[in-house]
TrEMBL record:
The record marks 155, 210 as: Important for substrate specificity. InterPro entries: MTAP, Nucleoside_phosphorylase_d, Nucleoside_phosphorylase_sf, Purine_phosphorylase-2_CS. Residues 26-227 form the Nucleoside phosphorylase domain. It comes from Sphagnurus paluster. This is S-methyl-5'-thioadenosine phosphorylase. Substrate binds at residues 173, 197-199. It comes from the Eukaryota. Catalyzes the reversible phosphorylation of S-methyl-5'-thioadenosine (MTA) to adenine and 5-methylthioribose-1-phosphate. Involved in the breakdown of MTA, a major by-product of polyamine biosynthesis. Responsible for the first step in the methionine salvage pathway after MTA has been generated from S-adenosylmethionine. Has broad substrate specificity with 6-aminopurine nucleosides as preferred substrates. Homotrimer. Phosphate binds at residues 34-35, 67-68, 174.
Length: 283
């Protein structure tokens, strides 16, 4: 059994109705299609603030984000899975990247490790085992750097080569500002990436097309579902679950700049949707 909710937040409606379902353990999970029902929303137009705020309002404490990515390394072949550790931001400032934008309150979230280390470390063994159980020989790569580009066009060959020189291993259009907003909302966040193509850096290969991406995604759909099922079931039963999913809670306490005057009440009300511990009308 499942329910679907479409929640209005101060930042608007999320990309799609949020599906709430129960695992066999009785723990509840929420699913949200970031690009909307039927993949109808361009990367630059994804309402990430509304998405994260809606999940936070439902009590979500950890996000396992799945995403198709391009590979910038020969060894990360299409079909491979990856758990990235770092991000290079190549978006262009058109995506609202902070819940504090448009308010009179300033905050600087720590983002040196853009993915929740404790969650990523826990995922590594479980994802690897799930891939081995399936028996298709799918590899898992860890500790990689992902470049987030604006899109919707794919990279030029020159850009793709430059990203490799910068130390990029993967590239997508979705991880930002999603991961930044999750950090501001004190939600643990990890990305499970599926390589679909080699982007455009290989001189002897054709540049990536949407057809290439879709073909690999379809081929890997069953693998992604299997990984998700295994990971969610094991996390729900892990005695360390509370510490794993709550790893970011309290992380914004020292990120909010002190003020000499009280902030506007409308700003406090707005931010109480994501950080009720710090923003209430009484404090």
């Amino acid at each position: 059994m499942y329910n679907q909710l479409r929640l209005l937040q101060p930042w608007g409606f999320p990309s799609a109705p949020i599906t709430i379902a129960a695992l066999p353990s009785g723990k509840h999970i929420a699913f949200l299609a970031r690009h909307g029902t039927g993949h109808s929303i361009q990367p630059s137009a994804v309402p990430s603030r509304a998405n994260i705020a809606a999940l936070k309002s439902l009590g979500v404490r950890a996000i396992l984000a799945f995403s198709a990515v391009g590979s910038l390394r020969e060894e990360i072949a299409p079909g491979a899975f990856a758990l990235p550790a770092q991000i290079i931001d190549r978006t262009k400032g058109v995506r609202p990247a902070s819940f504090f934008e448009g308010t009179n309150i300033v905050a600087h979230a720590a983002f040196g490790d853009p993915f929740t280390t404790r969650l990523v470390d826990w995922l590594e063994g479980r994802v690897r085992r799930a891939l081995e159980e399936e028996g298709r020989g799918v590899q898992l790569f860890t500790g990689k750097t992902i470049v987030c580009m604006e899109g919707p066009q794919f990279s030029t060959r020159a850009e793709s080569i430059m990203y490799r020189q910068w130390g990029g291993d993967l590239i997508n259009m979705s991880v930002l500002p999603e991961s930044k907003l999750a950090r501001e909302a004190e939600i643990s966040y990890a990305l499970i990436a599926t390589a679909t193509d080699y982007d455009s850096w290989r001189p002897a290969s054709a540049a990536v097309t949407a057809h290439d991406v879709l073909a690999t995604l379809k081929a890997n759909a069953d693998t992604s579902r299997h990984v998700a099922a295994v990971v969610l079931a094991e996390l729900a039963e892990d005695p360390e679950m509370e510490a794993i999913i709550g790893a970011e809670e309290g992380s914004m306490r020292w990120s909010i700049m002190p003020r000499s005057v009280a902030p506007p009440i409308e700003d406090v009300r707005k931010l109480s949707f994501i950080l009720p511990a710090y923003f209430t009308e009484s404090n």
